[in-house]
Structure formats: structure tokens, C-alpha cells
């Protein structure tokens, strides 16, 4: 097998990893752009992954100053609604680590799948099964705004820039991957 863009040691098709995404990676086109280099993957590749609504308690998601993406930090009494993704390979995880860079630390967390998302203001959601996942926690809380990051605003105003060829890794530092904490 020819070496991949990040090297032989991370190539695998095991698909045993899962992750909790709470920002730009909640959009499948961004996930595919990061992990496969294109927003339009073949159906066979798309079928390798599942994406389900989930909730992570004890954290909050906020806007990162002067950025299109959010940061998530521990915050008792709060929660973050996101996506539980499965079917991730070692190569996918290495690309995600590279994408997140040194601003984030990958951590193991427990999320609950959402059987019913409902009207969040009225608390009309139903939490289901607990799952283990990896997620990326923002390390520079001083760069976070108080305001919650808005997925729909991102889709409307920024998504088109995040799924064009070459954009995803602009400014990423290949020599400083995300820290991994088990």
C-alpha cells in the first residue's frame, strides 16, 4: 500500500473508533472533507459511518474569537448537543487530530444518544443509551466568547468556505497535532 498523506503508521480500515462532534464536524460535508479530502464521498465510504444526535453533560460550547468554529470546555451544570459518529478508522482519527491541531486535546468522554431532540427550550428531549466517544476539548478558554456557537449560522454563512478543496488544512500545523488524553 502506498503511503497516505500522513504516513503508513496511521493507515487502517478498522473502523472501531467513535467521536462526539459539536462544531463544524457535525456537518457531514466537513467531516468528509477532513477525513477523505472531498465533501462528495462515494456511497460505500458514506455507509462506513453513522451520525446520531447526542448530548454531552458537564461541558459548554462557545464561539472562538475571530474564528468560524467553536471550542468546548468543561462546565458543570451545562451540556452540549452534538453528533455521535461511528466507523472511524485510525487514519480518520489521525486526520482529525491534525485538523484540530494544538488548540485542542482529544479526550475520552461518555455521551448519551438522543432518541428525541425536541424543543430544546422546553426541555423536550429524550436521552437514550450511553456511549463512549473521543472528543476535542478547547485548551485556550481565554479565547472563547461568552456567546454559544450557532450551527445554523455556520451553515448559512461559512460552510461553503469549509468544503472547497484545500481550505480545510489551511493554517494547520502538521508538527503540532492535538494532544490525546485517555
UniProtKB/TrEMBL annotation:
Residues 20-150 form the Gamma-glutamylcyclotransferase AIG2-like domain. Transmembrane segments: none annotated. Pfam families: GGACT. Gene3D superfamilies: Gamma-glutamyl cyclotransferase-like. Keywords: Transferase. InterPro entries: AIG2-like, AIG2-like_dom, GGCT-like, GGCT-like_sf. It comes from the Eukaryota. Belongs to the gamma-glutamylcyclotransferase family. This is Putative gamma-glutamylcyclotransferase. It comes from Remersonia thermophila.
Amino acid at each position: 500500500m502506498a503511503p497516505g498523506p500522513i504516513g503508513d503508521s496511521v493507515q487502517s480500515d478498522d473502523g472501531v473508533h467513535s467521536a462526539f462532534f459539536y462544531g463544524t464536524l457535525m456537518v457531514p460535508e466537513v467531516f468528509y472533507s477532513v477525513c477523505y479530502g472531498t465533501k462528495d464521498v462515494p456511497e460505500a465510504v458514506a455507509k462506513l459511518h453513522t451520525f446520531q444526535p447526542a448530548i454531552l453533560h458537564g461541558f459548554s460550547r462557545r464561539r472562538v474569537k475571530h474564528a468560524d468554529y467553536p471550542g468546548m470546555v468543561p462546565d458543570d451544570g451545562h451540556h452540549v448537543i452534538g453528533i455521535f459518529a461511528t466507523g472511524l478508522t485510525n487514519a480518520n482519527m489521525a486526520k482529525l487530530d491534525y485538523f484540530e491541531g494544538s488548540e485542542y486535546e482529544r479526550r475520552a468522554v461518555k455521551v448519551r444518544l438522543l432518541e428525541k431532540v425536541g424543543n430544546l427550550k422546553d426541555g423536550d428531549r429524550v436521552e437514550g443509551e450511553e456511549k463512549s466517544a473521543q472528543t476535542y476539548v478547547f485548551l485556550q478558554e481565554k479565547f472563547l466568547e461568552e456567546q454559544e456557537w450557532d450551527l445554523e449560522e455556520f451553515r448559512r454563512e461559512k460552510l461553503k468556505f469549509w468544503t472547497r478543496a484545500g481550505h480545510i488544512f489551511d493554517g494547520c500545523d502538521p508538527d503540532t497535532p492535538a494532544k490525546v488524553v485517555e
